[in-house]
Amino acid sequence: MHHSKNDYWAGRAISPISISEDMDITDLVDNVFDCMGYNAKRLAEACHLFKTMIDENSSVCLTLAGAMSPVGMGGAIIKMIEKGFIDWIVTTGANTYHDMHFAYGLPVHQGSFTADDNDLADADVVRIYDVFIDMQRTLIAQDKIIQTLTQKAFDNGDFSKKFGTAHYYRTLGKGVEETAKHPERSFIAAASKNDCPVFVPAFADSSVGMGTSYLPIIACARSGREKLHPIDFVDPSPTMDVLESAAIVHNSMIEDIPRGVLEVGGGVPKNFLQQTGPTISQILGMECPGENYVIQLTIDRPDTGGLSGATINEGKSWGKIPRAGEGNVVPYIDATIGVPVIFAYALSNCKPRKLKRYGSKLPEMTQELIKAALKVVKN
């Protein structure tokens, strides 16, 4: 908050916080965090900004880095998709892979970060900090499920035309919906069912990418060949991902609705979403102001040159946001604490929205973008 010379004292006076026995999430955010300073205040600002995005019918994207699904974050995301509070998602392959364990009832347990990793390896236990996953019963089983679902979709001709990761995950989510014991526990299945596109721009960098790499080998075995053939590959197109994600942003410009993003961590998902503005302006030659509202939950520093810690305001110089210092907030807080608070606040304070159903509109919106770009090329 920038003050002119005379209004340094315009901010609320700070008092010892008031905590009561019957507080709910709204009380906690509005009457505790918002009355404080530091990251408590930033978290309250994030809750209010997320509410603004929803209330103004913004096109809302969730970017999800790292491995948040192994600790159960998927459940909160499912709720946000169903309420229409999240319209599209950009995430890592890891989050989509571990998400599916819950749908199929594969073991994921709380463990200990002090465990001996050599002992864990001997016992076939895989560790993500304090989460334990079973190598055979969970990972190997999950790999087989992904291969089976992908192979079936491949045989059905679902990947015969050029496609991006949103199409791949829509197809995989449908497979989870049809074959899992508890599809309601998977955010991939919920996204597919509710027409919310999921982009995984670093598709190869995950167990899902690893799993699909096996399919051309299966094709060779089936046909008695020893050489891989390009026709056997399940290969989401990076170009399609860039165009389709830019098309969602372009569409919100045509419909004259704001664009908002909640960035959980940084990494590839953060950059992939934030490059949509520069794709439209820098590459396709059309005006695009970038994201109107940005919340990033991170614990990364800006002074080491990493994208994950880069401030949102820095994005102004790249054409990623309309104005530095406006419409964005960065709580420096662990996402496992911040995200449930923001989502719970939204559920308590926002009315459900009509689903935007970007998934089935992607081909049409991408064509709109191409047509607009062609006009620029002709000129």
List the topology elements.
Layout: H1 25-31, H2 38-55, E1 59-64, H3 74-82, E2 88-91, H4 93-103, E3 108-110, H5 117-122, E4 125-128, E5 131-134, H6 135-155, H7 165-179, H8 187-193, E6 198-199, H9 207-212, H10 215-223, H11 238-254, E7 259-264, H12 267-274, H13 276-283, E8 293-297, E9 328-329, H14 335-349, H15 358-378
Parallel strand pairs: 1-2, 1-7, 2-6, 7-8, 8-9
Antiparallel strand pairs: 3-5, 4-5
CATH class: Alpha Beta
Q: Name the poorly predicted regions.
A: none
Structural class: alpha/beta
Distance between the termini: 43 Å
- On the 0 to 100 scale, the average pLDDT is 94
Number of helices: 15
Radius of gyration: 22 Å
How does the major sheet shape up?
Answer: 6 strands, parallel
Q: Any idea what the CATH superfamily is called?
A: Deoxyhypusine synthase
Q: How many beta-strand elements?
A: 9
Count of all domains: 1
Fraction of residues in helix: 40-55%
Q: Hey, roughly how much beta strand do the residues contain?
A: 5-15%
